[in-house]
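User: Hi! I'm working on a homework problem where we have to compare a predicted structure to a textbook description. Could you give me the structure for the chain below?
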Amino acid sequence: MYLDIVTSIDEKRAGRFLSIREKSNGNTEIDGPPKGCAGIYFFYTSYSIDELVSVPTLLGRAVPIAKLAKAHRRLPNVCNLEHEGFRLVYNGIGGFNGGTYDLRTRILQEISCTDGRTGSLCIRQSTVNDLSKWRYSYITLHCTGQKSASDFGSDWSYEEHANDLERCWRLVNGWPLLCRT
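Assistant: Happy to help. Predicted structure tokens:
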């Protein structure tokens, strides 16, 4: 049951290999997902492991990039998926917060977050902040008020399956280098 859906997730994930850009006003620009969605997201980088292990730790709940890269880099079962010279290093579930759905905002928080209470990669606040060296992808498990349905229909709802799908995806593909839990 889960192996089939994980295979489908990987097909969608690979087909949505998206760049991250900085707009002229300095804000971050991404191409998806649409607002009103929840799901699973993935981050890739072309930064080397040596570059990742030298990133200074940021304050608050920011992901300790160097600490995790050092701890995980030589372990078996770490995710080694690559696409066009970018290695998948992080994933998460998100987009549901207090009755509203917004996976797009959660992805943007991973890229740039100044709220120390939010666990995030904080890419733009780190020393590995060249956005051309980062990519992301996502799959949707819930979409509210959208013209398009979620990627897998109501049989795979966010509320019921997000945690299980993330765990099973990691069991199949390995633990992403920069993931804590």
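For your comparison, note the following. The mean pLDDT is 92. The two ends are 24 Å apart (CA to CA). Good luck with the assignment!
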